[in-house]
Amino acid sequence: MTCTCSYANQNDDYCKHMAVLLYYWQNNSAASSNENISDICALLEAASIIKIKEFFEETLHNDNNLLEKFRLFLNRQEGKVDLKAYEKRLKKLYTLNEWKSVREDIFDKINSFHYLAPLYKEEKIYDRLLVIVLDSPALSYLHSYEDVLKKLYPKELLNKYEIEVQKMAAPVTSRNTYKEIVSLLRHMQDYPNGQETCLKLINEWKVAYKNRRAMMQELEQFLK
Q1: Reduced 3-state DSSP string for 16-57
Q2: Which pLDDT score is estimated for 90?
Q3: How far apart (Å, rounded) are the C-alpha atoms in residues 13 and 7?
Q4: How many other CB atoms are found less than 10 A from the CB of residue 51?
Q5: DSSP states of the chain as a string?
Q6: N- or C-end of the chain: fewer Cβ atoms within 10 A?
Q7: How far is CA 222 from CA 81, 189, 219, in A?
Q8: Cα 219 from Cα 214, distance rounded (Å)
Q9: Among residues 168, 158, 176, 155, which one has the least CA distance to residue 209?
Q10: Series of mean pLDDT values for 10-residue runs along the chain (224 residues)
């Protein structure tokens, strides 16, 4: 949707004509004649952008269906999804108690760790963020959210590290991978009971993988 008025494309906002035409389209999709649209545009010319924003904010606040369509409309216009930005803007429209319900509706519509994780972090819903970190493959999510979860869930995160380094150690692989494993072990030592966990793993590996010369050499570097 484009417009030629002076407000269009200023500061990445939609002009008043575009905003209210969207509202009209939502509520009167069957009636879209040029005559009706012309009447709307004429009406809007008499309204200030401040009044239009006040009207639209109130309308979105009271109409969740329209709010969802507007969010999807913005997504199509910008060609990308930025749910965290949308959430921050939507949050301003609600009281704290109202927002707790609204955000659950938003979460229910998202089925991707990629989008849910930063929203949970933003909302400080750390128990759900922990579930994503533990259920995700490898360690990328753990590295991304370790800073907010480590003090709250050190045991769970250490266990996640242990599981993943065990997976890395199982197949015969390159020296670089063994170096990466040792680097992770050093990081794990910073957790409560981390050093004990690392020594336990190394002792197990010395028995299970004793014929892997490169691996044994790298593990010795950790023990020095």
Answers
A1: HHHHHHHHHHHHCCCCCCHHHHHHHHHHHHCCCHHHHHHHHH
A2: 75
A3: 8
A4: 12
A5: ----STTTTGGGPPPHHHHHHHHHHHH-TT---HHHHHHHHHHHHTS-HHHHHHHHHHHHHH-HHHHHHHHHHHHHHHTS--HHHHHHHHHTTS-HHHHHHHHHHHHHT---HHHHHHHHHHTT-HHHHHHHHHHSSSSHHHHHHHHHHTTT-HHHHHHHHHHHHHHHHSS---HHHHHHHHHHHHHHTTSTTHHHHHHHHHHHHHHHTTT-HHHHHHHHHHH-
A6: C
A7: 43, 11, 5
A8: 9
A9: 168
A10: 51 50 48 56 71 76 70 53 64 83 84 87 95 95 97 98 96 93 96 97 96 95 86
Residues comprising the chain, all counted:
224
* CB-CB neighbours of 198 under 10 Å: 25
Helix 113-122 × helix 140-149 angle, to 10°: 10
